[in-house]
Amino acid sequence: MKFRAPKPDLPGFQLTPMLDVVFLLLCFFVTTSVYSQWENEVEIQLPSADSSVEPNRLPGEIIVNVAKNGDIRVNGRTLSPEELGEKCRALAAAFPGNPVVVRGDREASWESVLRVLDVCAKNDLYNVNFASAIPDEKPADEPPPAVVR
After folding, report:
1. Residues of the chain whose pLDDT is less than 50?
2. How high is the pLDDT of residue 36?
3. Would you say residue 24 lies in a domain?
4. Phi-psi bin for 124: left (phi > 0), alpha (psi -120 to 50), beta?
């Protein structure tokens, strides 16, 4: 009598390692998206204030940068006041009470910062904060103390 050898099982698709990888990728992208919302324009020089403290950032807050030439930048894009108004209107409709942080350059005109405040107020965004730099222990333009021997 002739016996047949059993057919070997074909390797199947392993679902558990695939779900582990997808979960880790999801955690990575969620984490990086939260930190990308806190981006700051590097070339903006904030004015310093003695009452400045390190902020507790909230997810979803919008950061509006006002450059020294008056340009309004949000998420790396230069916007006109009308485009900023559209973004603020959509933000106020989706998330009422969402915070807005205005980062104005120390050499920017007050008129350009006031324009941003006006756009926020017209679109029902009243939770507006101003960013300022924490002052150094000694001013940068002050010469170092003389060494006495």
Report:
1. 139, 146-149
2. 53
3. no
4. left
Strand 72-74 and strand 77-79: the pairing is antiparallel
Q: Has residue 148 been placed in a domain?
A: no
108 DSSP 8-state letter: S
Domain limits for position 62:
35-130
CA 7/CA 70 separation, integer angstroms: 75
Angle at Cα 106 formed by Cα 35 and Cα 119, nearest 5°? Answer: 70
What pLDDT digit, counting tens, does each position of 38-72 carry? 555 567 777 777 777 776 766 667 888 998 888 99
Contact between residue 60 and residue 37 where contact means Cβ atoms under 8 Å apart: yes
Split into its structural domains, the chain has a count of 1
Measured CA to CA, the distance from residue 139 to residue 44 in angstroms comes to: 18
Distance CA 29, CA 96 (A): 26
Q: Count Cα neighbours of 5 within 13 Å in the Cβ-side half-sphere.
A: 3
Q: What is the pLDDT of residue 146?
A: 47
